[in-house]
């Protein structure tokens, strides 16, 4: 019985992820992409463009997304693969964002997660930083912050 439940969950996750992929393909964005691994539908690679008029403008960031058998009831594990200097992202690429933790809801999807991350780039939550130095520079020295962003960034081709 337990394996039947497990197979049902896996099938539901696959159906949901296939639907989300189709939705993204039918409404393509110029600032974000996401595609599953050729071998595993629960492992995705995504990209987001840095928002205009932010220190990340003109930069592209690569991310990994891993979906548990309990998705969409639990959030995906999302990591920045591109090195990034940001108050809410540590040097391992882990992200402090409420919708990826305790504020997750099954109504969120891959697109809404990526849009939230894109928004976070321009509007960090400095009251809950993973990188205290970046939070301090964001508030006090935009020029030095920008220098550190550019020094840390690599293009997707360099990864």
Automatic annotation (TrEMBL):
It comes from the Eukaryota. Gene3D superfamilies: Ubiquitin Conjugating Enzyme (3.10.110.10). SMART domains: UBCc. One of its GO terms (molecular function) is ATP binding. Keywords: ATP-binding, Nucleotide-binding, Transferase, Ubl conjugation pathway. InterPro entries: Ub_conjugating_enzyme (IPR050113), UBC (IPR000608), UBQ-conjugating_AS (IPR023313), UBQ-conjugating_enzyme/RWD (IPR016135). The active site is at residue 96. Residues 12-158 form the UBC core domain. Coiled coil: none annotated. The keyword Manganese does not apply. Belongs to the ubiquitin-conjugating enzyme family. This is Ubiquitin-conjugating enzyme E2 2. The lineage of its organism: Eukaryota, Fungi, Dikarya, Ascomycota, Pezizomycotina.
């Amino acid at each position: 019985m337990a394996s039947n439940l497990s197979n049902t969950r896996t099938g539901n996750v696959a159906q949901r992820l296939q639907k989300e992929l189709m939705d993204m393909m039918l409404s393509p964005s110029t600032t974000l992409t996401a595609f599953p691994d050729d071998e595993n539908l629960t492992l995705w690679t995504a990209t987001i463009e840095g928002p205009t008029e932010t220190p990340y403008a003109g930069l592209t960031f690569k991310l990994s997304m891993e979906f548990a058998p309990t998705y969409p009831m639990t959030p995906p594990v999302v990591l920045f693969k591109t090195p990034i200097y940001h108050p809410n992202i540590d040097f391992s690429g882990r992200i402090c964002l409420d919708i990826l933790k305790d504020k997750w809801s099954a109504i969120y999807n891959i697109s809404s997660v990526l849009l939230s991350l894109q928004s976070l780039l321009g509007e960090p939550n400095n009251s809950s930083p993973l990188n205290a130095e970046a939070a301090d520079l964001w508030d006090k020295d935009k020029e030095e912050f920008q220098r550190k962003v550019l020094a840390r960034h690599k293009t997707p081709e360099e990864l």
